[in-house]
Amino acid sequence: IRYLSKRRQERIQLIGDLLHREGFDLALLQEVWSEQDYSDLKAKLGSCYPFSHYFRSGVIGSGLCVFSRFPILDTLLYQYSLNGYPYMLQHGDWFCGKSVGLVILKISGILFNVYVTHLHAEYCREKDAYLPHRLVQAWELAQFIRHTSKAADVVLLGGDLNMHPEDVGIRLLRGWTGLRDAFAEATHFEGCEDGCTLIPKNCFTVKAELLPFPLGIRIDYILYKASSSFTVTCEELRTTTGTAPGRDIPFSDHEAVMATLLIRRQGRAVGAAPSTDEPALAEVVTEARTEVSVGLRAARQQRYSKGRMAVRALRLLLLQPTAALGALAGLGAQQPFPKLSFSLLAFLAVGILLLATALHLFHTMEVKKLQGTEEQMGMALRALRE
Amino acid sequence: IRYLSKRRQERIQLIGDLLHREGFDLALLQEVWSEQDYSDLKAKLGSCYPFSHYFRSGVIGSGLCVFSRFPILDTLLYQYSLNGYPYMLQHGDWFCGKSVGLVILKISGILFNVYVTHLHAEYCREKDAYLPHRLVQAWELAQFIRHTSKAADVVLLGGDLNMHPEDVGIRLLRGWTGLRDAFAEATHFEGCEDGCTLIPKNCFTVKAELLPFPLGIRIDYILYKASSSFTVTCEELRTTTGTAPGRDIPFSDHEAVMATLLIRRQGRAVGAAPSTDEPALAEVVTEARTEVSVGLRAARQQRYSKGRMAVRALRLLLLQPTAALGALAGLGAQQPFPKLSFSLLAFLAVGILLLATALHLFHTMEVKKLQGTEEQMGMALRALRE
To answer: What is the value of ipTM here, to two decimals?
Structure first.
């Protein structure tokens, strides 16, 4: 983030150097909040990554961009319908308009659907108020991938999912899309222990948050799957390990994940993908749906309390002219009419009325979205059971 | 709209009767703003349309719902990234969270992707301030259909597009997706002249808006296309014609569009779809892009002026303590310190500051979205030219 992030330009330069040196086929970046940084990278990497795309969204931007050695044929952006609260300024997620970006590439005649995303952060694991929103995002991500990837030979998803490998959201995403985790499947692995991407050793991470996890946590992923005529395997997976080689700072607060994937055309198309374990998947969807329901109850409560606040402010406001008339009519003749405090009170009432109404509308939208997701998950469950 | 629409319940009942009597395979409704109305229709139509879905979105709701004789396999909602302005309360579009809903059906082994949508209204054709937003919506609709329909045998789109048949948005949508207009292709037609769906004869339409169009306008559509292994033809197209049979009121302010489509499996799959006229398509995309650029300039101007207003309010606010200190220090000793007007001014400054900041953020998002669409259209143009 411009002006806020420490040694930002230096790190963008380090990231550019790394991308240049490694010469990947494809690089997916998140949290590139400054479009200037994207332009700088684009200028620097033009020779080795002639194709790139920056996804614009929200107030600040989605932060998502892609650099590619191969032509980008098309792009599409899907903005998640829920993404935290605009009044949680200290968490800022709402302002980024968190999204999933799709780029379509053709490499050696193979059609790739590549998704890059960044889900809502987890600020407190014990009492994660954003879990329902993140689950709605994971569900929308899974649905978006399912519906847009039907013509693709290979599907890749990379990004900061802000979920631990065993969390319900990641199980939902993997189960519902059939995507596989490159870390779990890699033949060779090199990097932070357990594939962690947020480690205490990194000087930009918040140490207190990682106290229960001395090795760090794994929240950044590369996932993949192939259509029935192809196979994908992960030959090698690597992560960066804290500081950049020969420097005193790391590239980013998260460690980069780098995968070497082997894609093979199958002699004959296999009829159907290996059938997923449907009872297990139904269990995951049920678990996710329960969490969404919890969020729905909370959102309904918020909608109600904000509505009540608006009504009270309105009543206070309506009381003013009555009281003023009373005072003028001589009821308060003993004391002078307190004009100043009266007008202050009226302004306060107007302010509260506007704020409470805006929040009431916001939570009405939240309720609708959570309700819609709960219903969709219910539909998925019925389909699974049949 | 509850409490606002005239004879609402009676008309919902008439619509239910019509749907029941006609026994369609599929009905796509728009502007069903009240979920209660949807529930009433659902209860009434359970026997002939056992499957249905209501798309939830925005503050009021998307207003979109689907009734089907065949099981709905899956659904997905895509909310348009631009949809008017929240402060244009009299136009209300922003609050509906205008979207496109997708339902997936299988009928006799044929996979249908059915899209239902409602684009931003046109309030003034001569000076249509919402044209860039509607074009962004038409583009996102086209992109969403392209990316999600690749596995479908047949694609159907129905809805209130708020565009005349020759408007750039509809040409863009048709050109970019390959969808065909049922009205233009129908073997038999029965209904309002020229297929109009907003006619002066309908007692709920605003007569003044239709003055330049004595026959009315056609802004509601059924569009379709088939994959290479199928063909679709429109056997018959009908519209309602003002008042419901035997009643003094029409079903709605728009006339309903009813199509009988014939879908045939092709003996052998044709290699590629009939190639579209690429230079003509490039021309349409260029025309649309120019309109989006006009919108982008206006949005930038708005963002700038709202930012300036916020800065001025902040300056006014900072002036207050200075002036107050000055007054207390005796500079204004002649006159009593005007506490009341000072506090009123401070409140006013805070109010303007908050409002201008919110609007500045809103227009920042608008700029990003218009810019993103302009860029995407540019990418499409390059692809077309190559």
So the answer is: 0.89
